[in-house]
């Protein structure tokens, strides 16, 4: 890659990896088209022990956000409380009382999916649509996250790149990659080889990549976790992501791809190809630690994964509470 030419690299990758028109001019699902009923049956058959793992960070005021692009942590407010019930101020008959609450938050404040209307390339959205025709002040009117409702469930695969490569890297640690570590296709393939056959990656899979960045944030504090430097996928993985025909990829980092980005004067170049051209769903800030420990313990890196985003009509990204079951 020529560090000085992000425009050229992005344009070339977009041409090589475009899925525009692959599933028709009206397609709104992108790579979720790879995740069919047969793939869900394959994923469901992986449940043997019944052990389940939440892959979501908590949604609360102590979360990772520091105000970048006006993103804040969730604000949770009670509308009715036990105190109201005790004092009989709720007005319900025969002694019944209750509690009610509301939350205010950016939809990408914590564990979430990026929708296909989240990123554009030179004013163009997924499937060659004009960005202004897709996302307006009313939200994403074509590829809103609600179009994925009920679809993101199938075979999940965890590649623990942090555990395989972390200890051998300058600035890294056992199970943790250093900031700025660019995960290449060679790293992904070597991790698959290290994990064994259950880590094979193919069509319709939901791929999880652990870097160890969240582990460090838990130990040292949030710092710049939400927007700062981090290990992540190299731009060079774009052809691998396209060629494997995965349905989605999620990581334990804020931005999926390596930061600082690999080009001079570039911002999230992998996003710029993956979302508007491949139509690939990207998951961010997933908690993969407990699942990773279990994968090491039983030697199995595949599982049933359900990860439906909150179907907010017109949203370009949404919170998700993924659950992996082995």
From TrEMBL:
Stored SUPFAM superfamilies: Putative cyclase
Protein name: Cyclase family protein
Entry-linked Pfam families: Cyclase
Domain of life where this protein originates: Bacteria
Family annotation (Gene3D superfamilies): Putative cyclase
